[in-house]
Amino acid sequence: MHAEIMKQRSFKEEKLRKEATANAEKLSAVTIKIGAKAGENGKIFGSVTTIQVAEALNKAGYPVERKNIEISEESIKALGTYTAKVRLFKDVSASISFEVVAE
Fold first, then answer.
1. 13-60, pLDDT tens digit by residue?
2. Does pTM top 0.90 for this prediction?
3. Count of alpha carbons within 13 Å of 48, Cβ hemisphere only?
4. Model confidence at 79, in pLDDT bands (50, 70, 90)?
5. Is 57 buried (19+), middle (13-18) or exposed (0-12) by CB count in 10 A?
6. Domain regions of the chain by residue span
7. Do the strands 92-102 and 31-36 form a parallel or antiparallel pair, or are they unpaired?
8. Exposure string over 26-50, b if 16+ CB within 10 A, otherwise e
9. Which of 16, 48, 58, 81 lies 20 to 30 Å from 2, alpha-carbon distance?
10. In degrees, to the nearest 5, what angle opens at C-alpha 90 toward C-alphas 85 and 94?
11. Alpha helices in 1-103 (DSSP H)
């Protein structure tokens, strides 16, 4: 009985890992745009957080929770292109690039 449960659990985990790997490949090819209000010199009012990145990914058809996103910069307060790491499974993650543009 115990062996059967372990077998089912490992099968489910392997299936989820394969799906996460496929999604990681798709996400790596995607560049998303995040709109922010900015001044004339390219500085934005406030900063871009994982919340905005998660919303942009959801709009693009990739449902990701914000707690699974790590922005490589400490805080994003200027227009430009940045990268973030998205954890999709225990040891599967993808690097995405996103562009902060003026609204």
1. 889 899 989 988 988 888 899 999 998 888 999 999 999 999 999 999
2. no
3. 32
4. very high
5. buried
6. 2-102
7. parallel
8. ebeeeebebebebeeeeebeeebeb
9. 16
10. 25
11. 2-28, 50-59
Decide if 31 contacts 98 (C-beta within 8 A).
Answer: yes
- The pairing of strands 92-102 and 80-89 is antiparallel
Check the CA dihedral 8-14-20-22 and report its sign. negative
Residue showing tokens 């430009």: 80
Q: What are the pLDDT digits (tens) for 5-18?
A: 888 988 898 898 99
- Identity of the amino acid at 32: I
> Looking up tokens 């940045």, which residue turns up?
82
Nearest Cα neighbor of 68 from 79, 81, 57 is: 57
Structure tokens belonging to residue 46: 């406030």
